[in-house]
Design goal:
This protein has about 290 residues and is α/β, with parallel strands linked by helices. It is built from eleven helices and six strands.
Length: about 290
Amino acid sequence: MLTGGTAPCVRPLPIKKIKLQGKYDGYNTDDFIVFLEAPKGDPKAKLLAQIKHSIIISENDPVFAEVIQAAWSDFQDHSLFDPATDAIALITGPLSATDIENARVLLERARHSATAKEFFDKVKLGKFTSEIQRKKLKAFRSQLEKANGNKDIGDESLWLFLKSFRLLGYDLDEKSGVTLSLLHSHLAQFQCGDAPGLWAKIAEEVESFNQNAGTITIETLSSEIKMSLSQHAPVAHIPAELLKQGAAATAAEFIQGEKGNVLALASLLGAWNEKSQGDQEAIKRLLDQ
């Protein structure tokens, strides 16, 4: 939001606000909700996010059961969630290879299927869907049925839910992680002077908002942080001494000298075939004038 970036999983719209601990406002997937909105107010989108340090996509994992229960409740509440524009994300640390290669592939396959029938037809194909992926699908179905009061939700509702659900893995718990490096790179585009220090201030301020179930907007953030991001860093240029001889010459310099007129006329010709007698005669007449 501060650097003009976008949120994952939804349309690349400007971030308007971030609601933390949204349970008080009716959200069950409540760690944070990102509200996105076009400058003119439409279109809009939301990302509902639950954060877990670790999780296993299985029929018996209690943490996964908790996440699915919350997500299913929000998915069914059309006053909070629109499956056409919004997304629900489970954000966790680095995922296991099994979940990356199977659960996430399964969710992507659901999003790339036009109908529930097409999706489940693919699931049944042994060469198209692995047995592990089918086990992950069974885990989603089992947990969703529990969240639905131990009632079958049917293939259509299962497919629609999978299309809206995302698995996101971040490595912010590692000081040398890719995510932190990317955040520092975003902040470095501004004249903040100390990107890691500014990130520490932002994290501290977000923690304060989180403890108070606050809503973060550009207006509610401290003036210190806003001022640090008020000016873009100057555009870097290649030092003149590193440029090749003559590389910085202007177009005007290239057409000066005794062959200047020839070069100027040649630049107007466009393409020609040097093996064509007709092209050669036309060029000669032009340059001899």
